[in-house]
Amino acid sequence: MIKVRKANDRGHADHGWLNSHHTFSFASYRDPTQMGFRALRVINEDRVAAGQGFGTHPHHDMEIVSYVLQGALEHKDSLGNGEVLRPGEFQRISAGTGITHSEFNPLADESTHFYQIWLQPESSGIDPSYEQKRFDDNELSNTLRLVASPDAADGSLLIHQDARIFLSQLDADHSVQATFAAGRHGWLQVLRGSVTLNGEALETSDGAAISDESTLVITATTDAEIMLFDLA
């Protein structure tokens, strides 16, 4: 079963400095039918104006994965990390017992476009930690590259949940295939371009919840970038 979440059906908040679309209920957007999917709790597509950002704020007991599509995102946290993420870079924060951080667009003349994803951890009260990584384009081209996993397999980011995240940059008319074990679920998020998922058409910023599908065939109808989640 594939249930499409169209981009235009998401929650939306425009604060001037921040233009944010919420796949699931978040902040002032509340929809009891959209409270998350499996371990996924938040998929926010954010655009932060030049020179603006999120002030220092706390998190706890959440796995937070951010991925920058355009611009730059400057991160500072209570663990002493201070980094700038560029397009194509991932950040993983395990909030655990508690962490505070800020996120800021340091550019004077360009907005920052990024996805922020929250997953519920398998257990509460872990030690907070931070990780940042970029995967080479040649590792992503027309294949599903593992970018996050519970065992940091194949150089992926470590997340404290039985979930795996894959990223792919697809040329038009190319396909990738994924196989899900019995009882597993998936989520596909189209970051750029357009694809079909087992024949179902998806456009930029569309998502899809996947259950009871043992095999997925994802075909790019234009050049595209996708993120695929394999969830318990």
From TrEMBL:
Domain (Pirin N-terminal): residue spans on this chain: 6-119
Cofactor(s) demanded: Fe cation
Domain of life: Bacteria
Cofactor note: Binds 1 Fe cation per subunit.
Entries under CDD domains matching the protein: cupin_Yhhw_C, cupin_Yhhw_N
Swiss-Prot/TrEMBL keywords: Dioxygenase, Iron, Metal-binding, Oxidoreductase
Binding-site positions, Fe cation: 57, 59, 101, 103
GO MF term list: metal ion binding; quercetin 2,3-dioxygenase activity
Residue span(s) of domain Quercetin 2,3-dioxygenase C-terminal cupin: 146-231
SUPFAM superfamilies tied to this protein: RmlC-like cupins
This enzyme's EC code(s): 1.13.11.24
Oxidoreductase as UniProt keyword: yes
Similarity field: Belongs to the pirin family.
Xref: PANTHER family: QUERCETIN 2,3-DIOXYGENASE
Name of the protein this chain belongs to: Quercetin 2,3-dioxygenase
Protein source organism: Rosistilla carotiformis
Classification of source organism: Bacteria, Pseudomonadati, Planctomycetota, Planctomycetia, Pirellulales
